[in-house]
Design goal:
alpha+beta; four-stranded mixed β-sheet; about 45% helix
Length: about 180
C-alpha cells in the first residue's frame, strides 16, 4: 500500500514537471492572440518573440534573443512599407534587407555572418502574433528562417498599419530580421 502511494506520488510529480514548462510558456505567450486594436507594440513584439521561440524550443533549438540593432532595421522597414504602401524585402529605392541590417550597425566588426528576413501583414485576428507565426510556419522559406539553428538573434519591427492602400480594418505590418555573427 505504501509502495503504491509512493509510486502514485512519483507519477503525479512527473506529470506536474512535464506540464509546468508548457504552462509557463502559455503564460509567457498569453498576448499571442492580441491585435493592434487591443495591445501596445511592445506587447505584440514580446508575444511574437515568445511564439517564435516556442516553435524553436519544440524542435530542440536555442531561443532567439532580441537584438536592438536588428530591431532597428526591422522597425524602420515595417514603418517604411506601411507609410509608402509596398510590401517587399527590397525598398522602393532598391535597398535589400542586408543593406538595412548593415546600416543599423549589426554587421560592424563581424568576420562571418548570416542574416535572414521574414515579412507579414494582416488585419484583425490575422495580425496577431500567433496567426502571423502560423502563416510563416506554413511557408517553407519563412519556416527555414525561424528554424535555422545558426540564427541566434532577432529583430522585430511592427507598424500598426497595412502596407497597401484601401484597408480600413486595423492592421499590422511585421518585419523580422534574423542574424548570427562571429
Amino acid at each position: 500500500m505504501v509502495r503504491r502511494c509512493l509510486l502514485l506520488l512519483v507519477f503525479a510529480l512527473l506529470a506536474a514537471a512535464c506540464t509546468a514548462p508548457s504552462a509557463m510558456a502559455a503564460r509567457a505567450c498569453e498576448s499571442a492572440n492580441a491585435t493592434p486594436a487591443s495591445a501596445a507594440k511592445r506587447t505584440m513584439v514580446r508575444a511574437t518573440l515568445c511564439v517564435l521561440n516556442h516553435r524553436r524550443e519544440a524542435r530542440g533549438l536555442r531561443r532567439l534573443k532580441l537584438n536592438r540593432r536588428l530591431s532597428r532595421a526591422a522597425r524602420r522597414h515595417a514603418r517604411d512599407m506601411a507609410r509608402r504602401n509596398y510590401f517587399s524585402h527590397d525598398t522602393l529605392g532598391g535597398g535589400t534587407f542586408v543593406d538595412r541590417i548593415r546600416r543599423a550597425g549589426y554587421l560592424r566588426d563581424a568576420n562571418r555572418w548570416s542574416v535572414g528576413e521574414n515579412l507579414a501583414w494582416g488585419t484583425q485576428y490575422r495580425s496577431a502574433p500567433r496567426s502571423v507565426a502560423q502563416m510563416w510556419m506554413q511557408s517553407p522559406g519563412h519556416r527555414a528562417n525561424i528554424l535555422n539553428p545558426s540564427f541566434r538573434e532577432i529583430g522585430i519591427g511592427l507598424s500598426y498599419d497595412a502596407p497597401v492602400r484601401g484597408t480600413s480594418a486595423v492592421a499590422a505590418t511585421y518585419a523580422t530580421t534574423f542574424g548570427s555573427k562571429n
